[in-house]
Amino acid sequence: xxxxxxxxxxxxxxxxxxxxxxxxxxxxxxxxxxxxxxxxxxxxxxxxxxxxxxxxxxxxxxxxxxxxxxxxxxxxxxxxxxxxxxxxxxxxxxxxxxxxxxxxxxxxxxxxxxxxxxxxxxxxxxxxxxxxxxxxxxxxxxxxxxxxxxxxxxxxxxxxxxxxxxxxxxxxxxxxxxxxxxxxxxxxxxxxxxxxxxxxxxxxxxxxxxxxxxxxxxxxxxxxxxxxxxxxxxxxxxxxxxxxxxxxxxxxxxxxxxxxxx
Amino acid sequence: xxxxxxxxxxxxxxxxxxxxxxxxxxxxxxxxxxxxxxxxxxxxxxxxxxxxxxxxxxxxxxxxxxxxxxxxxxxxxxxxxxxxxxxxxxxxxxxxxxxxxxxxxxxxxxxxxxxxxxxxxxxxxxxxxxxxxxxxxxxxxxxxxxxxxxxxxxxxxxxxxxxxxxxxxxxxxxxxxxxxxxxxxxxxxxxxxxxxxxxxxxxxxxxxxxxxxxxxxxxxxxxxxxxxxxxxxxxxxxxxxxxxxxxxxxxxxxxxxxxxxxxxxxxxxxxxxxxxxxxxxxxxxxxxxxxxxxxxxxxxxxxxxxxxxxxxxxxxxxxxxxxxxxxxxxxxxxxxxxxxxxxxxxxxxxxxxxxxxxxxx
Lengths: 262, 361
Prior knowledge:
The complex is a heterodimer of chains A (262) and B (361). Chain A is of the alpha/beta class.
């Protein structure tokens, strides 16, 4: 499991995160939500070691600070919010960069990039130049690379982890569903997924656990119905929100109450 | 047609779209043949009129070589050939490594002041080396000038990286401007040193500053070769890290790359290869930027193939430039820096024209 305790982050003398804690279980899809500037991405980046922070982060029972980068990369992959690429790599070559450690030694390693591209709906894109893809396609190509890095969700009984910072932000609705389904499948197969999301309805549809953040602190954490209440959401987002249920499936969906904003 | 079982297994692996590994391997094989051919040609060409077929014929029939033939071949052309190969490979590889480190195809040790820094180190050693304690002089011996050039290159690369990189992103504009400032500073300090140099030192400086392989000798080669060889050995270790760095430092570190250590190794490699090359042959421009760029066009930017291929193409091109330098105004010869500038300058401009966008990054 992931156990991040008492994370403080200060940027430019300003406290961005104050004592935020997050627990996530392997086999479940954990989503961090919250309004702009609430510290969602900061929490994820602190957990993945991209920001200096106080507090402790344990993954599968080990403090991530004490694990060398190569060992951590074996069971943890991170999708950053913005992607950059120097030099004209093809899509296949970018995805292949995700072949690290033991996965690279598999007999079928040469075919895995192609299969990872299929999983994100980019079959046949391997020969294109990465820079020539649209923003959404680039985002999915990066996702394929990250997915390839932790290809098997569980290895020798140890779960692998995906950390995704707004994985569907640049995607159309069809690809949003495809990517969320892929993330959920990864969790169903025993891996751990922690994602930062903006879309509350997608979150309600796919998340197993939700962490709701506000002003650098965790406002609520738990199952969808525990966290997604009218009170929690309206308080966090500063507008009137009502949680309803889908007629058939009974899943939660959130509707802004335009009249009550004023 | 009967499908053979083994072809069934192998063909799909070759047909993966976007995988340029096979093309890269074929390019490298072709380059190896090219380097070999140019090397043989280079041994047979020169002002002395000693021809390789004659010499080989004599050697095959067991006939003794004349003293003149032996001197020309083994004491002049052979060290010059080896120096050319090593310098060309070092310049091209340090260009490719620096471009990978800065994530930019315009970063070249010659353009951004690293060559000037290495030159300053070499000039310092020539002019002020005599002031060192005798023990230090005895310890460094003939390696003093290459070592000083290495430290000069290292310091300027380090300053350049610190100035132009913020939060893992390198600004090209800052890098180029900082390179101009560093180059000017190194040039000014070099100028001051030239003023205080005595006559013998001035002669050394002039000869060295021409940018030529004409002064190649076994002594100079053995002085600088270890540093260049070390740098060329270190380069392949960097390949995977440079590929990862293309995605940014954070992404590279999540892929399991020890980013800080690899950056330090890359800076040392650039400084070593550039410094030692500058120490033996003075400033030879454009190899470091043109060679990696042409190779990226031909076989893609994967550093696992780009670095060895750059070594080969750099070595071959420098030998060719050296032959041109020796032949166009024979029996005199041009400084090789002029030849690489005449050939490389237009190619560099063409790169800029094709990809004006990269300067605005």
